[in-house]
Design a protein that fits this description.
heterodimer; A: alpha/beta; five-stranded parallel sheet; three-stranded antiparallel sheet; B: alpha/beta; four-stranded parallel sheet; 12 helices
């Protein structure tokens, strides 16, 4: 079970992405971070802290649950409905640049669902996609703006992102035969 | 993880296996405490949908829900309809006055005819206890009980529990006093089962003629002394005096009922200082509840109505996938 990113590597990667975000947007005015539940949320919060260290400014941060927008809801074979959790976006997204944050980019279907969900909250000036790991195998025309690590995988493998806030430790693991 | 799971990314650990593994919601009797908690947790997420600028999510797109109401209902029917629309389901309302029931069709025939048009879910309100069970046996569609006779009204009990949990942050250990027409109340039957399953201490109170003889088997305390019921209560729930279901003289007059059991501010002083007042509606002001209490600071009666939509969205969502995977299993 190879560890492809350890805690140090994850920390340095997020610091680098925070710098890229500040540079590309020429500051942090009208930026906001929205993490996709579950593991996009702690990543978004860490990026907000890193951006604050760089610029001294707070970037509003929210959490998005995309369950009700999934394209595999209510399909036969899928089994029980996934649990719905609260979306918490306590600021207006109108005319802001939204940084949508997820742990792994794979088929692109989660991102598609997140874009639909986000747009129901208002009309952002733009949406940029931040992912810790891009593992390839896109099924939709979606591309990340900030990538922590490009990780070539086979569809039989699964990528597990573990984060201190949820799993008690920071690491990214590549597993055989996880099916996801 | 299922092969179809690759339709969307599962990058984290599989969440705790929590699902409603049933086709229908016929009553609280059938639900486990874990299932009740799942419905209430899901309702919290659904409540947030109602606060958005666009109060609609695509979760039940392409599903057809029939609201079949054989009894008059404004609140429950509207609440279900809003819940269905917020989940993007197609809805169809059938009320008794406009249906072929007036031409002599039986409930089973009405259901079979609806079934032939392949609805995914049927929300049923009927004056006969057990009507939902009959439909459940003959229909492939998921059946949601929206009140059957004097039997159960599960979504009302769920929204009551949701409202209590929202205010008190828990159900376990709370003293809940339910006062009013206990005999004719399906809301009572569903509520005492739900509240006792979730660890609340339930007291029921009403005139001796309106206390069901078997109420003790649910593990509740029954009394006709309203002061005793209200003492140190965290929640006081009033039930409507259902004159339309009464076939005899259960108490001398409405004025006397108010005098002995009506909830007034003076009576309420015996409860905890942060007591909340609930009523499933429609209220008879000046009978089971004084206006000063209904409109007072402890009242969460309108919260109950608002929460009804979120709880019904949760039930619709959780049952929508249930029927199919039960067949697949």
């Amino acid at each position: 079970m190879p560890v492809v990113m350890d805690a140090d590597r994850i920390g340095r990667t997020l610091a680098r992405i925070a710098h890229e975000i500040v540079e590309r947007n020429k500051g942090v005015d009208d930026l906001a971070l929205v993490g996709i539940r579950t593991r996009g949320v702690p990543i978004a919060r860490r990026l907000a802290r890193a951006i604050k260290e760089i610029t001294g400014h707070d970037v509003p941060t929210g959490a998005l649950d995309i369950t009700l927008y999934r394209d595999d809801l209510m399909r036969h074979a899928v089994g029980p409905q996934p649990q719905v959790r609260r979306t918490e976006i306590q600021f207006s997204i109108d005319n802001r640049k939204i940084l949508l944050v997820d742990d792994v980019l794979y088929t692109g279907r989660t991102t598609r669902a997140a874009l639909d969900a986000l747009i129901d909250y208002g009309r952002p000036k733009g949406i940029q996609l931040v992912v810790l790991v891009d593992r390839g195998h896109r099924e939709l025309p979606i591309k990340a703006d900030y990538v922590g690590k490009n990780l070539p995988t086979s569809p039989e493998e699964s990528v597990q992102v573990r984060l201190q806030e949820i799993d008690g430790q920071d690491e990214v693991v590549l597993q055989q035969g996880g099916g996801a | 993880m299922t092969p179809a799971g690759t339709d969307i990314e599962h990058t984290g650990h599989t969440p705790a296996a929590t699902a409603l593994r049933r086709k229908d919601l016929l009553g609280i009797t059938d639900l486990t405490p874990e299932e009740i908690a799942l419905i209430l947790d899901t309702a919290e997420a659904m409540k947030e949908v109602g606060t958005r600028p666009i109060k609609k999510v695509p979760a039940l797109r392409g599903k057809t829900v029939v609201n079949l109401f054989f009894e008059p209902s404004t609140r429950t029917r509207t609440s279900f309809e809003i819940a269905e629309k917020r989940l993007s389901a197609d809805t169809l309302n059938i009320a008794i006055g406009t249906s072929s029931v007036v031409k002599g069709e039986t409930l089973a025939d009405t259901a079979l005819n609806l079934e032939a048009m392949s609805p995914d879910m049927i929300v049923l309100r009927h004056s006969s206890s057990g009507a939902c069970h009959l439909l459940s046996r003959i229909c492939r569609a998921a059946i949601i009980n929206a009140g059957d006779g004097m039997h159960e009204h599960p979504t009302q009990a769920l929204l009551d529990a949701f409202t209590i949990r929202e205010r008190k942050k828990r159900l376990r250990g709370l003293k809940v006093a339910i006062i009013g027409d206990l005999l004719h109340s399906r809301v009572l039957r569903s509520n005492i089962q739900l509240l006792t399953k979730m660890g609340a201490r339930v007291w029921v109170c009403g005139p001796p003629t309106l206390i069901p003889t078997d109420v003790g088997r649910f593990g509740v305390v029954a009394t006709s002394n309203v002061d005793e019921a209200v003492a140190d209560a965290d929640v006081v729930m009033l039930l409507r005096i259902q004159l339309e279901r009464m076939e005899g003289a259960y108490f001398p007059s409405l004025r006397e009922y108010f005098h002995v059991f009506g909830m007034t501010e003076a009576r309420l002083r015996r409860a905890k200082p942060d007591v909340i007042i609930m009523h499933p509606g429609p209220m008879n002001r000046g009978v089971e509840i004084a206006s000063e209490v209904a409109d007072g600071p402890y009242s969460v009666i309108l919260d109950q109505v608002a929460n009804g939509v979120a709880v019904r969205m949760a039930v619709l969502y959780l049952l929508a996938g249930g029927a199919e995977h039960e067949e697949a299993a």
